[in-house]
Amino acid sequence: MTDTTERLDKRLARQLDCARGQARQWIENGWVRVDGQVVEQPQAQVSAQQQVAVDDNAEQQKVEMATMVLHQPAGMAVDALAEAVRPESQRSDDPSGVRRLQRHFQHLQVALPLPPYASGLVIVSQDGRVLSHLASHGLEVEHEYLVDVSGQASTWTIGKIQAALRGAQAVKISWQSEQRLRVVGKRLDPAVLRHACQENGLAVEAMRRLRIGQVGLSKLPAGQWHYLAAGTRF
């Protein structure tokens, strides 16, 4: 005889004597286990013999859309960035305090991508509010880059590069070493920055974005990501 099954949210609603919508929130928030395993799909089928339980630490809350900080490795194409955000590439010591859920990896889009010759901080999000804000205002906050260069520099090199950064605002450039420039400014375009260096005799060997506004790369390893903590502002 075949066991009959029913949707997990229906089973949980009956078990807790609550509305189906409330049961779905418990499930989608990752608080429900079936035979000891977390199941986040309300439509999952369960049998009468299976044990359904809610975590003791469960909190009833709205499922928030996720935003991630990714360290884009050099050479990675823009269309591969969202796919790079996977459970196995999450930073092991993620400082955000956000609980990872399966639904966080759905419908991800990239904001402020870097060209393949650059590396560093990019934002990946499923939150339309974040994506819209960065599309409209993401270049109006400071961006910070480290640019590794080779070639002969002169006393006037920094001034010439700064003058060549057409459209950029509040730009500050300094030497970090004989072959590394630190560039900070608003409306910085990495392609224009690269060209400005090249037309002034410096070949760009590497370019890394360290910061967008108040959000920094910190010590996030290349190819890894962590959640953007709730309440963080750019």
UniProtKB/TrEMBL annotation:
It catalyses: uridine(2604) in 23S rRNA = pseudouridine(2604) in 23S rRNA; uridine(35) in tRNA(Tyr) = pseudouridine(35) in tRNA(Tyr). SMART domains: S4. This is Dual-specificity RNA pseudouridine synthase RluF. It comes from Stenotrophomonas ginsengisoli. Its EC number is 5.4.99.21. Transmembrane segments: none annotated. Pfam families: S4. Residues 6-64 form the RNA-binding S4 domain. It is an enzyme of class 5 (isomerase). One of its GO terms (molecular function) is RNA binding. InterPro entries: PsdUridine_synth_cat_dom_sf, RsuA_PseudoU_synthase, S4_RNA-bd, S4_RNA-bd_sf. GO terms for biological process: pseudouridine synthesis; RNA processing. Keywords: RNA-binding. CDD domains: S4. Gene3D superfamilies: Pseudouridine synthase, RNA-binding S4 domain.
